[in-house]
Amino acid sequence: MKRFFYFFLIVLISFSIFSETLYKREFKSFKLANGLEVLMVKTKTQPIVTIEISAKNGSYTQTPENCGLSHLYEHMFFKGNVKWKSQEEYNKRIRELGIVYNGMTSNESVRYYFTLPSKNIDQGLEFMSFAIIDPLFDSIELEKERNVVLNEFDRDFSVPIYKFYQMADSTMYEKYFYRKNTIGFKNVIANATREQMQEIKNKYYIPNNCALVIVGDIDFDKTEKIVKKYFTRWEKGNDVDFSFPPHPFLEKNKKFLIVDRVATTKYLLSFRAPDFNGKSKDSYVFDLLSDYLSLSSSKLYKDLIESGLAYNYYVGYSGLKDGSEFSFYLDLRGDNIDTVRKIIFEHIKNLNNPDYYDNDLLQHSKEYGEVNTFRRLESSLSFALTLGYWWCVGGVDNFKEYNQKISEISKDDIVSAVNRYISNSNYVEGFLTDSLTYKNKLSFLKGE
Amino acid sequence: MKKIFLVFILTTIFLFSFSEVFKEKISKNVELLYNYVPENDISAVTIFIEGGSLNYDYEKSGIENLIFRLVEKCGKNYSESKMNELMDKYFVNVSYENSYDYSSFTFSTLNKYLFDVTKIFADNFKEPNFSDEILKKEKDKMIDEIKSKEEDPDELLYLKLNDYFFKNHPYIANPEGYIETVQNLKSIDLYDHLKKIFSSRRVIISVVSGVPFKEVKKFFKENFGFINGKVEKVESLKNFNLCEGDTLLKYEKGGLQTKYLGCKFKVPSIKDKEYLPVRVGLSILSKRVYETLRTKHGLTYAAYVGASNKLANYGVFYVSTPYPDSAMKLYRDEVEKVKKEGIKQEEIDDMKNIYQTSFFLDNERISNRSFALGYNYLLFNDYEYDIKFIKELEKLKSKTVTDAVSKYLKDFKFILVE
Questions:
Q1: Phi, psi (rounded to 5 degrees) for A166
Q2: CA distance A255 to B120
Q3: Phi/psi of residue A39, nearest 5 degrees
Q4: Is B44 left (phi over 0), alpha (psi -120 to 50) or beta?
C-alpha cells in the first residue's frame, strides 16, 4: 500500500512538472523543424477530437487585385488533393471518418477544422495533411467553386444588415478597404485563376505561417508521433512579411445612410481604436470597457434598454492587428433616434471621467469576462477555434495571460485610453432605416 | 469482431453521455431529471412544458413566447432593473425555445449560484408580472422582430412554406406569433394561459450540475412544488391536410440578388418507427443533392434536404440559386434515382459515423445536455432516447431505408422567393 502511495505521488509530481494548463485543460505545444507550431489540449468530456489548421491569412493580406481570394482559397481547400483526387473521393473520406467540418475566413485568420471520433485521429491527421499540403486546384473545380462563392456573395448582399456592415467598414477603412473585405469584389472572384490560388498557397500556406491545433480526447505522446509522421514533409517557405501601410485614422467625422425595407432602424457609431499588439494595455482596456458597457446593470443599459428607447445594443472592440475599432451597434425604432443619439454621445462624453465607473461593477465586468471565456471554451471545437484565432491574431502567450491582464486594468488606464482614442476623436456614424422622416434623414446627413 | 466493435462504441457512448441520471417526481405533473457532472463549474437547468402550439388557438399565437420573455425580464418580486442586476451578479445565460410541440426555458450559471438563480426564475413563474406597461413594451419589441424576419429571404421562405403547409392544421398557430395575434394579447390572457398549462400539462425540469443531487432534489421540490395539476392528455395531432401532387407558388420580394427555392413534404412523426430510416434516407439524399447542385454543377452555395423533428412532421428541400428551374429539375432527378436505384449500405454506414460525431459534439455543452435530457424524456419518456437512436442506426439496412424514404418523397409543395 505504501509502495502504491509513493508511486502515485511520483506520478502526480511528474504530471505537475511536465504538463502545462490552459484554462484548466492540459496543454502541450511543440514546433516541427519546418516551423509548424502544434498546440494540443486535452478535453475528456466526449470521445472526439478537433483537428484545426489555422493560417495567418485572410482579408488583411489582400490587394485590390485579389480581394476575396483568401475566402475562395478556403473553399478550394475542401476540393481534391494528390491523395483524394476528386471532390467525390474527398467527401467520401470525410464520411468514412465521421468528420464534421467547416472552414472560416476572417480579417486576420483562416481556419479549417475536422471534428471526428478520437479513435480516428491518425487517419484524420493524415487527411488534414494532404488537404493542406497538396491541394490540386483543378481548373474545372475552380470554375465551379467561383460560382458557389458568387452565390454566397449574392446571398450576403440580399440581406440589408450585411450591406450596412460592409458600408461601415468601407467608410472607416476607405483607403485600404480591400484589406477588410473578406467576401471581396465580385469581378475578382469571377475571374480568379489557378495561378492566383497557387500564389496564395506558396506565400501563406507554409508550415512557418500556420498552426496545427488539436483539442479533444487525446494522448499527447501518441498525437505528437502522428503529427510528426504526416506533417514533417511540409516544406518550409519564406517568412511572410506582414508590414502593410497602416490604415489612416479618420480626418473628419463620416456619416452614411442606407434606406431599405427594414422593420427597425440600425444605428452604428464607431471610433478607431488601438491595433492589437499584445504589449500595450490599451487593447485590454477596450475589451474591458466593452464588457463594462454591455452589462445589463450598467447605466448605459438602463438608459437605452430599460427606458424602452432601444431594443438591443452591442458594444465591441474588434482587437485586430491591422485596423481596429470600438463600436456601438443599436437596434431601435426610428422615431427614437434623436433621443438615443443624445444619450449615446452623453455617455461617450463621460467615458473619460473616473466617476463614471462604479468600482464594484468594474470588478464584476472583469469576472464576467472570465466566466464568459470559460463558457466559450466549454466544447473542444470552440476551444480549438478560439486557440487557433488567438495564435493568428494575438499570440498564444497573450491568450494564456488574457484574464490576468484584464484584471490589472485600472480606472486610470481606461480614462487614459479613452482620452487618446475616443474623446474628441473622429468617428463613423451610420443608419440603416426606412422609417426616418425626410427631415430626420436630411438633418442627419448635414451633421446636425 | 464487428459485434465487439459495436459493443465498444455503445459502451463509450453510454459512458460519455448520461452517466448518473436521477429521476424524481416533484408534484403530480412535474418531474425532475438530474445529471451529476462534478468536473464542470457550470450548472444548466431546462424547464419543458408539453404541448406547444396545441396549447393555444391561432388567435393566441405567440403567447408562450411572450410569457417566457416576460419571465426572463421580471416578476412580481423582481423589477426589471433588479433582474438585470441579479442576472449580471450571478453570470446567468438564458435561452428559450417555443416549438410546435413544447416550450422550453433554459438558464445556466455557476454551480455556486444554482439555487439563487433557480429561486428567481421559479418565483417569476409563480408570481409573474404581466402588467400593461411592461407587456406593451415587450409586445412592441416582439412585433418588430416578427416584421424583421421578412427582411431575411431565408426566414421569409421558411415563413411562407409554413403558412402554406400548416394551413388547416394546429401548427398554423406559430409559436413565434403573428403581428395581429401578438397585438391582441392581453395581460389576463397571459395569466390564464400560464395557470392553464401549469395545471394541466407535463412539466419536465432537467438539471445538469456539479451540485449534489440530494440538495438539488430538496431545493427544486420546495421551489417548483407550486406547479401541481392533473396531466390532461394533449390531443393527438392529425396529419397535414394537403392536396396530392406537386405545387409551386412564387413570392416576389424584390431587391434580392439571388433566388430562394424551398419545398416541404410529409414525413413520419418523430415518434413513428419509420422516422429513423426516413431521416437517414433524407440525410443521404441531402448529401447527393449537395454534391450534384454545388459540387458538380456549381449552381449554389447552399443546398439541403432533411427531416424535421416534429410530432406532425415534414421534410424540407432548400436551395439558393440564380437558376431555380435547373435546381428543381436536378433535385427531382436525385429523388427518382433514390426510388429506382435505392440507397447503398455503404452510404448508410458513412452517415452513422457523422451522426455519432455530431451527437458527441452536441453533448459537450452543459446546456445542450440539460436540453437533451428533458427533450428525450418529454417526447419519448426515455432520457436516453438519443443514445438508443444511435444504437438503432447500427441496425439499419439499405432496403429499410430505401423503402421508407421512397414512400414519402412525393407531393412536394414548392415556394420560390425572388
A1: -60, -40
A2: 44
A3: -120, 120
A4: beta
In CATH terms, are B18-224 and B247-417 the same topology? yes
Distance in Å, alpha carbon of B231 to nearest chain A alpha carbon: 37
Q: Return the closest-CA partner of residue B366 out of B187, B220, B208.
A: B208
Q: At what angle do helices B366-380 and B345-363 cross, to 10 degrees?
A: 120
Point out the residue among A48, A92, A159 whose CB comes nearest to the CB of B151. Answer: A159
**A244/B contact by beta carbon, under 8 A:** no
Distance of CA A71 to the CA centre of its chain: 14
CA–CA separation, A62 and A178 (whole Å): 6
The pLDDT of residue A6 is above 90 = no
Residue of chain B nearest A333, judged by CA positions: B144
Size of interface A-B (CB pairs under 8 A): 153
Contacts of B364 in chain A (CB under 8 A): 43, 45-46, 48, 378-381
B240, B243, B246, B248 alpha-carbon torsion, rounded to 10°: -90
Q: Over chain B, what is the mean pLDDT?
A: 93
HSE-up of A4 (CA within 13 Å, CB side)?
A: 1
pLDDT above 50 for B35: yes
Contacts of B159 (CB under 8 A, 6+ apart): B149, B150
DSSP A258-290: EE-S-SSEEEEEEEEEPPP-SSSSHHHHHHHHH
Closest CA to A384 of A93, A100, A182: A100
CB atoms within 10 A of CB B89: 18
What pLDDT score was predicted for residue A444? 67
Task: Enumerate the domain spans of chain B.
Answer: 18-224, 247-417
State the DSSP code for B295. I
Does residue A293 surpass a pLDDT of 50?
yes
Cα distance from N-terminal residue to C-terminal residue, chain B: 54
Of B93, B295, B361, Cβ closest to residue A115: B361
Put simply, the answer to whether A151 touches B320 (Cβ < 8 Å) is yes
pTM given for the model: 0.92
pLDDT given for residue A446 in this prediction? 66
For residue A119, the SS3 value is helix
From the list A100, A160, A262, the residue facing B354 with the nearest CB is: A100
CATH 3.30.70.270 fits B247-417, yes or no: no
How many whole angstroms separate alpha carbon A378 and alpha carbon B41?
10
**Alpha carbon separation from A176 to A61, A317, A429 (Å, rounded):** 11, 20, 19
pLDDT at A125 over 70: yes
Q: How many CB atoms lie within 10 A of CB B116?
A: 14
Q: What digits encode the pLDDT tens for the residues B148-171? A: 998 899 999 999 999 999 998 999
**Residue A316 grid coordinates:** 465591441
Whether the pLDDT of residue A271 is over 60: the answer is yes
Across the interface, which of B88, B110, B256 has its CB nearest the CB of A158?
Answer: B256
**Residue numbers in A near B145 (CB within 8 A):** 263, 311
For cell 406559430, the residue is: B174
According to CATH, what is the number of the domain B18-224?
3.30.830.10
**Contact by Cβ (8 Å): B329, B350:** no
